[in-house]
Design goal:
9 strands, 14 helices, single chain, 4-stranded antiparallel sheet, alpha+beta, 399 residues, Butyryl-Coa Dehydrogenase, subunit A, domain 1, Butyryl-CoA Dehydrogenase, subunit A, domain 2, Butyryl-CoA Dehydrogenase, subunit A, domain 3, globular
Length: 399
Amino acid sequence: MAAVPHHPRPGGAPVTTTFTHGWSEERLALKRSALEFTRREVTPHLEQWERHGEIPRGFQKRLAHAGLLGVGVPEEVGGEGGTLLDVCAMQEGFMEAGWSGGLMAAAYTHGIAIPHIARFGSKELIDTYVRPVLSGDMIGSLGVTEPGAGSDVAGITTRAVRDGDHYVINGAKTFITSSVRGDFVTTAVRTGEDGAHGISLIVVPRGTPGFTVSRQLDKMGWLASDTGELSYEDVRVPVTNLVGEENHGFHYIAQSFVSERIWLALMGYGHALRCLNLTAQHCKDREAFGKPLVANQVVRAKLTEMHRQVAVARSYTLEVASRYDAGESVVADACLAKQTAVDTAVWVADQAVQLHGGMGYLRESEVERHYRDVRLLPIGGGATEVLTDLAARLLGYST
């Protein structure tokens, strides 16, 4: 690679494109709060967190103090209230200001760890786990994926056997976000027959004998997010840690799939918009052959196509979120919105690195981090291939 001039990491580069249409004044204010919080509490520290491999526990308290941790969670269980669109407005602000994928995953793991408890759990479980998470005092995670079962949730083999007033759990989980720092794991276990109808959710606290983080996983991206492999060896937990009813776990998990996939779609177009803004600024500042890069028609065409794809992904994602808030069934649309947004993220990040040239290949360039982070999005929350097939069945295109 040819030598390139050194430039400061462009983490504080000015945002040149922002989207405001579709937001009420209240949601615009929420988005601005997320932008300002990022500039104050995230931008000065993010590079260190990426190198360290996790975010400090105190960051949850700062989010809670700012009123940003419990957005979208009902007030009656300790949240800030609001709908999925409120979450969208907040997350759009975070991503536009330069959050990494790992930071988003680590800071908001409760978005997948506690909804089932908040909706179906006992008052004791809500008071013990949900409220402390939303105040920033605890960190939870969700344990579904196993070495032999990822997108195939119905295929999990970790088993819980009733023994008097306890369940005894044996099995393993992998790729579990926030499990290294976590205080508990909402664990999907098999309590009944094979398939979806034999799955339950049980809360397993950290420190329970036999429950260990067998190793922390070293990843391509999402570096600020601690990700672990978990081992359950004769782990005994009280039957009161069962979330809702036995053998209803798959149904509980499935109810959270739509919001999780919209969340990942938001990450997708958020990464893409950040890459667009960083790249547009770079192309205005960088000169080659005696003129700025942006003076070349091919460069302008690429930037415009990047903008188009971001705008389309955003519109589709927010339309599906709005329909979800209105009570419509949008399972297929959520799958397709996720695919649209994450495909946009992968393509735009690739173009961003290309237009940055050699600088885009260096760790000191922010677009390099986004390039690595977005690669997980077509895999996480259900692989694109699996979700496309699910959408095909729901849309009536299968035999």
